[in-house]
Amino acid sequence: xxxxxxxxxxxxxxxxxxxxxxxxxxxxxxxPALNALVxxxxxxxxxxxxxxxxxxxxxxxxxxxxxxxxxxxxxxxVSGDQLSISQLVETDVLAPLGVTPPPxxxxxxxxxxxxxxxxxxxxTVVAWNPEKLKADxxxxxxxxxxxxxxxWRGKIGIDAAAFNWDQAVLLTQRNGADVVKRIxx
Length: 185
Description:
Layout: H1 11-20, E1 22-27, H2 31-44, E2 49-54, H3 57-70, E3 77-79, H4 82-90, H5 130-136, H6 163-172, H7 176-184
Parallel strand pairs: 1-2, 1-3
Helix pairs in contact: 3-4, 6-7
């Protein structure tokens, strides 16, 4: 989004950031992307130092909740997948952003209570080798539910840490919990 389309930071927020002098960002972005963004922020915001912590999405929610229970949340900003952010919403750890989001954002990409904004949307891709399917006597799946059928058992691979896969199945498939159980075997 062009800089001109972004909302202005309220003067009180800018003054508080300058007084504090640093911003801590827990992010699931890959390290090169996070480091580049931190460097850009530091170059364009003199007097405020951004510190990025590259942490996997599955660790963001538990870490912030542990810090909250200990009485000191170190992160000023968190970015991660829907599951990690929804954990923080459910436990009421996130504070409202305090800015009005730009109207160009897609419907549903802004929390009605102002606690989060979706910056990007991830897709999950299901890919297959047509030659292998043919050799195994399988047809391409027509839905995620097909992957839970007995003939697919032992023939698919899913990243065990990719909770967004399970979440996608739960949210998009009728009887999603049953589909997840069948796929897990």
